[in-house]
């Protein structure tokens, strides 16, 4: 648990480099990750890893400007949430928020989930 901020910092730096995003200071990223990690660590102890993971997946979908264009959000957040068993109301909301064709393809890929 104590090494997670180090791994997250490295993953963020690598991702930004791979995507050729504007560089950020590793020290700045490390500070941001460390600042965010304290409350997350407390939530893990209070709610459990699975609940925190589910919450992060939901947040990833909500904050991503175009999840239909980002495989990482689709594979790491949307698909696991769908496989977990979304309620019909969640399906309806997805159809209201995202392009209809994209939602149809996603549901098809999940076997109609």
Protein architecture, described:
With 113 residues, the chain is mainly alpha-helical. 77% of the residues lie in helices and 0% in strands. It has one domain (4-84). The relative contact order is 0.08.
Mean pLDDT: 82
Estimated helix fraction: over 70%
Number of strands: 0
How many domain regions? 1
- Assembly context of the chains: single chain
What are the main properties of this structure?
113 residues, mainly alpha, 6 helices, 77% helix, 0% strand, globular
Strand and helix layout:
Elements: H1 4-18, H2 26-47, H3 49-63, H4 71-85, H5 88-97, H6 100-109
Helix pairs in contact: 1-2, 2-3, 3-4
Quick synopsis:
This protein is mainly α and 113 residues long.
